[in-house]
C-alpha cells in the first residue's frame, strides 16, 4: 500500500494527522506501507523571507480572534495525541517552499518522514523559523543529509518551481484542505481523522483490491475457456 500525504509544514492539523496515521499503522504491522509527503502551501504568497506572526495574523480577515480559536482547538486535540503545541513561541510565519524542497530532497535517501517530523517539532514545539536556511540545515544535519550539498541546493532555486507546480496540481485536483491522504492513488482520506477511520479505510482498500483481483481471475478464466 502506498500513501501520499498532502501537507504543509506550518499546519498543526497535518502534524496531528501524521500522528494519528502512525497510531493506525502501529495497529497493522502486517501491512507493507510506503509513504511519500507531498507539498501544499497554505500561504504561498508570503514573502520568501517570511514575516512576523503578528503581522501575518493582523492581515487575516478575522485576525487574532480566528487565530486564537484555531490554536486553542489544535492545542486541545494535540494534547490528546501527545503533541504539546507551543504556539506562543512562534514568532515568524515562514514561506514554506524551502521546507518543502528539503522534504523533496530527503525522499531519495529514505529520511523524508524524519525530516517532516523534525520540521513540525522545530516549528510547533520550539517556535523555530523553518523558513530560515540555517534552521533547515540544522535539521538536514540531524537526519544525516549531506550538509554541504543541502546548503548549496538551498542557496539556489532548484525545485522551487517543482514544489509550486505540485502545489497547484493538488489544488486543481480538488484538494482544498489539508492534511489529505491519498491511498494507492485512488482512495482519499481528508483531514486529520481519528486512527479508527484510517483502519476502516485500510480494510476497505484491502476488500476492494481483493474483489478486483478475483474479478480479474474470473475474467481471465472465461477468456481462456473461450479460446
Topology:
Elements: E1 2-7, H1 12-26, E2 34-39, E3 51-52, H2 53-58, H3 63-80, E4 92-93, H4 97-107, H5 112-124, H6 133-142, H7 147-155, H8 160-172, E5 180-183, E6 187-190, H9 195-226
Parallel strand pairs: 1-2
Antiparallel strand pairs: 1-5, 3-4, 5-6
CATH topology: Glutaredoxin
The CA-CA distance between the termini, in Å, is 35 Å
- Overall average residue pLDDT: 94
Main beta sheet: strand number and arrangement? 4 strands, mixed
Helix content: 55-70%
Dominant shape: globular
CATH architecture: 3-Layer(aba) Sandwich
Q: SSE order in H/E notation?
A: EHEEHHEHHHHHEEH
Please tell me how large the radius of gyration is: 20 Å
In CATH terms, the superfamily is Glutaredoxin
Q: What's the β-strand tally? A: 6
Number of helices: 9
Walk me through this protein's architecture.
This protein has 227 residues and is an alpha+beta fold. It has helices at 12-26, 53-58, 63-80, 97-107, 112-124, 133-142, 147-155, 160-172, 195-226, and strands at residues 2-7, 34-39, 51-52, 92-93, 180-183, 187-190. It has one domain: Glutaredoxin (3-Layer(aba) Sandwich). Helices cover 56% and strands 11% of the residues.
Keywords:
227 residues; alpha+beta; Glutaredoxin; four-stranded mixed β-sheet; two-stranded antiparallel sheet; 9 helices; 6 strands; 56% helix; 11% strand
Put the structure in a nutshell.
This protein is of the alpha+beta class. The chain has helices at residues 12-26, 53-58, 63-80, 97-107, 112-124, 133-142, 147-155, 160-172, 195-226, and strands spanning 2-7, 34-39, 51-52, 92-93, 180-183, 187-190.
Amino acid at each position: 500500500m502506498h500513501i501520499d500525504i498532502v501537507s504543509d509544514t506550518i499546519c498543526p492539523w497535518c502534524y496531528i494527522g501524521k500522528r494519528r496515521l502512525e497510531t493506525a499503522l502501529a495497529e497493522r504491522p502486517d501491512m507493507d506501507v510506503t509513504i511519500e509527503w507531498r507539498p501544499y502551501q497554505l500561504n504561498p504568497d508570503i514573502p520568501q523571507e517570511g514575516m512576523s506572526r503578528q503581522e501575518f495574523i493582523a492581515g487575516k480577515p478575522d485576525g487574532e480572534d480566528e487565530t486564537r480559536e484555531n490554536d486553542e482547538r489544535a492545542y486541545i486535540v494535540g494534547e490528546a495525541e501527545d503533541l504539546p503545541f507551543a504556539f506562543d513561541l512562534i514568532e515568524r510565519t515562514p514561506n514554506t517552499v524551502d521546507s518543502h524542497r528539503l522534504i523533496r530532497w530527503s525522499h531519495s535517501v529514505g529520511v523524508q518522514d524524519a525530516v517532516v517530523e523534525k520540521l513540525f517539532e522545530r516549528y510547533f514545539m520550539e517556535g523555530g523559523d523553518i523558513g530560515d536556511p540555517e534552521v533547515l540545515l540544522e535539521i538536514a544535519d540531524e537526519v544525516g543529509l549531506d550538509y554541504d550539498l543541502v546548503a548549496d541546493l538551498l542557496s539556489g532555486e532548484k525545485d522551487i518551481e517543482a514544489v509550486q507546480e505540485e502545489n497547484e496540481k493538488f489544488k486543481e485536483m480538488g484538494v482544498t484542505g489539508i492534511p489529505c491522504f491519498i491511498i494507492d492513488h485512488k482512495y482519499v482520506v481528508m483531514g486529520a481523522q481519528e486512527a479508527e477511520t484510517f483502519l476502516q479505510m485500510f480494510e476497505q482498500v484491502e476488500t476492494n483490491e481483493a474483489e478486483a483481483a478475483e474479478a480479474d481471475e474470473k475474467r481471465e478464466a472465461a477468456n481462456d475457456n473461450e479460446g
